[in-house]
Amino acid sequence: MKGYHDIVGDGGSRILEQVAEQRTRIIDGLAGVRHLVAVGSGKGGVGKSTLTLHLAGALRARGLRIAILDADFNGPTQARMAGVQGALLVPGSHKVALPRTRNGIAVFSMGSLIPESEALDFESAAHGESHTWRATREFALLGEILGSFEWGELDLLMFDLPPGAERTVQYADFLGPRTAFLLVTIPSEVARGVVARSVAALSKGPNRVLGYVENMSGYYCRDCNAIKPLFASPEQVRPSGLEIPCLGTVPFDPELARHCDRGIPLAELPDTPVGRGLDHVAQSLLDRLESTAPAAAHSSRELRPGREHPR
Ligand SMILES: Nc1ncnc2c1ncn2[C@@H]1O[C@H](COP(=O)(O)OP(=O)(O)OP(=O)(O)O)[C@@H](O)[C@H]1O
Ligand SMILES: [Mg+2]
Known about the structure:
Oligomer: single chain
Mean pLDDT: 87
Bound molecules: adenosine-5'-triphosphate, magnesium ion
Order of helices and strands: HEHEHEHEHEHEEEHH
């Protein structure tokens, strides 16, 4: 079988020119974005999407201009959580305008375009081989979205990543060194083990890993106004072992889950453990973004294709 490097030329497809054109559109489209932050984990179901949306809300409440790109194309949840399911995509001044939440956060989510009863299907040239196309097609789609929507002037563009440690690294490679990572774990050894793999994989590349958030760190009992252990008794709780800074903890609050299900994100953080936890993480995130910023700020041109740093 011929390898990639054995193929001479592009068979007239202009593939290299097409890729270069797309990169230029992406770079131009993100030129007004100050920080790119990817919220990942490796582990599924730990609250990446919930924290992305509510940290965006906490940052928005500080007056920052925020957008979210739900990069989980096959399992998009931001549309429902942010209340932009079925939002119409309308032309903006140059490109496609983004739907916004009631508190002004711009959100792109496949869930706005595809009903929950349908799956996103990546067709394959070879029948039964669609899985081999998925990563390629996903990143081509991500590139299209970055290049086609009006991101405008933003303080933060947050990427809500899908689960999978290896996919976390693929996103780092695609998004380039400008993108900083915030990792989410829960107080379970299983989750921490997966997050530790993501940390190890990311540490081989140039992306900044800002730290981690421990979500579901206890259960907030509203009746007794106290935090109860969720995964382990207090004497079993061990340090995370993750060699990156902890930016804060957020307890499990059934009220937060209900808001996510109904598509009514908490616009104002309540004076409860979950509200205070989110507010603390939002401030730590901003502090880390500033304190770890490269001396000569990365230019937006550094969103570059391909893998320059093999992991
Ligand atoms: N701190 C919390 N309090 C209450 N519910 C929470 C909390 N964090 C997450 N949840 C709930 O847990 C479920 C999973 O959260 P979420 O979808 O954000 O996880 P995820 O890591 O994005 O999952 P996936 O890997 O599938 O993308 C959701 O129903 C969400 O509402
Ligand atoms: Mg998610």
